[in-house]
Specification:
Distance between the termini: 31 Å
Number of strands: 21
Structural class: alpha+beta
Number of helices: 13
Number of domains: 2
InterPro entries: UCP033563 (IPR008323)
Pfam families: DUF1015
Helix content: 25-40%
Protein name: DUF1015 domain-containing protein
Largest sheet: 9 strands, mixed
Length: 408
């Protein structure tokens, strides 16, 4: 069983939601956040990327940045731009992109469920990124960005969600980045809250779709407060939004590489892949990788000799890593090697063409999206996916829900 708990959300005033809501802090840099927040005092970037209100040469990890985030949060609350609900509720958050909706439940998740493996991960985290969010959570005494979770869909749960949407008016309804529609409903009926809580007791596990660093950081803050005796009932939980896996879409996460190609590059690739010239910019099926080099696209089709039944090794990102990036280019740790970069599928193959044609990168690889079933299988097996295996769209906006730890 997993625990989902209602909470008193800190959220925007109804008429400000569209102006407050912002992209997640970790998909943009400081300069982009500064540009997006320009002329908008309500932008959540003033809290999630507080360095935009400080001198441009300041490090985003400077202690002053976290204190500025806390000051800005207090200011938003004092001005009524953000308000805390009087009672604990569940919240429905629906995102619709290109006509495809996905609806999740915003709730507070148990840190013990994560510690005990009931909330499953599929990625490693980096200490410096954890420390950043730990400092941010501590300064604000709040979970300031939601964790994106998934569950294997249950018809009873989805029926309750659908019925609530059809019989209630959303408190927020607006379009934002990439013309995604965002709607939020407040579930304030105690019977419905109890029913959903009970139904999730039969859900065996939740899965982190996106937000591994935020999860690890939130859990570590909660455990530290518990150890120090400064915890509260709320600090034993963290902010999450959980979606049924059958409504989610993973986009491709492509690669560009800046390495001089060996003279026998194509011969080395041909040992593992069948190579075909093409005009096709995206692979048509798993086991295919599109490669762009010298103004030409190629389809690389994996040979049977490199295929695997292992939940990690059979992934296309693994086939590329194990048969081209590591043995041919010597790129063994993609998290730290500066000769490789990653391009989210939302930017399209034209971004790969632009980067290679500019001369800044030598070759690009367009991948078939990882399937949600692959992600769940890897997590269930207790294994870790290669870095940058998944890119979820649409992105959950930050600023629509905050979870107060209530320890100050």
């Amino acid at each position: 069983m997993v625990v989902i708990k209602p909470f008193k959300a800190i959220r925007p005033a109804k008429d400000l939601a569209a102006r407050v809501a912002a992209l997640p802090y970790d998909v943009i840099n400081s300069e982009e956040a500064r540009d997006l927040a320009a002329g908008n005092p309500y932008s959540y970037f003033h809290i999630d990327r507080a360095e935009i209100d400080l001198p441009q040469d300041i490090s985003s990890y400077d202690p002053v940045v976290y204190q500025k985030a806390a000051t800005n949060l207090a200011d938003f609350l004092a001005k009524g731009w953000l308000k805390k609900d009087a009672k604990p509720y569940f919240y429905l958050y629906q995102l619709t992109m290109n006509g495809r909706p996905q609806t999740g439940i915003a709730f507070s998740a148990s840190i013990d469920d994560y510690v005990n493996g009931k909330i499953k991960k599929h990625e490693f985290t980096r200490p410096e990124k954890e420390i950043d969010r730990i400092n941010h959570i501590k300064a604000c005494d709040a979970n300031t960005s939601p964790i994106f979770l998934a569950y294997r869909h249950e018809n009873k749960i989805q029926s309750i969600i659908k019925a609530w949407q059809e019989s209630h008016t959303p408190v927020y309804d607006f379009n934002s980045y990439h013309d995604v529609n965002h709607k939020v409903w407040v579930i304030d009926d105690e019977n419905t809250i109890t029913t959903l809580t009970t139904l999730f007791e039969d859900v065996p596990a939740l899965y982190i779709a996106d937000g591994h660093h935020r999860t690890e950081s939130a859990v570590k803050v909660g455990l530290e407060k518990r150890k120090q005796g400064t915890n509260s009932p709320e600090s034993d939980y963290f902010l999450a939004i959980v979606f049924p896996e059958n409504e989610l879409a993973i986009w491709e996460y492509n690669r560009v590489v800046n390495v001089a190609l060996p003279a026998d590059f194509f011969d080395q690739v041909a040992a593992s892949f069948t190579i075909t010239k093409t005009t096709q910019e995206k692979p048509a099926a798993p086991g295919q990788i599109q490669m762009y080099l010298s103004e030409q696209w190629y389809t690389l089709t994996a040979k049977e000799t490199i295929k695997s039944n292992d939940p990690v090794e059979h992934l296309d990102v693994s086939l590329l890593q194990n048969n081209i990036l590591a043995p041919i280019f010597g790129i063994k740790d993609v998290r730290t090697d500066q000769r490789i970069d990653f391009i989210g599928g939302i930017r399209g193959p034209e971004e790969l063409i632009k980067l290679v044609d500019s001369g800044a990168w030598q070759v690009a690889f367009s991948l078939y999206p990882t399937a949600m079933t692959d992600l769940l299988d890897v997590a269930d097996a207790g294994k870790i996916m290669p870095p940058k295996s998944t890119w979820f769209e649409p992105k959950l906006l930050s600023g629509l829900f905050l979870h107060d730890l209530e320890t100050k």
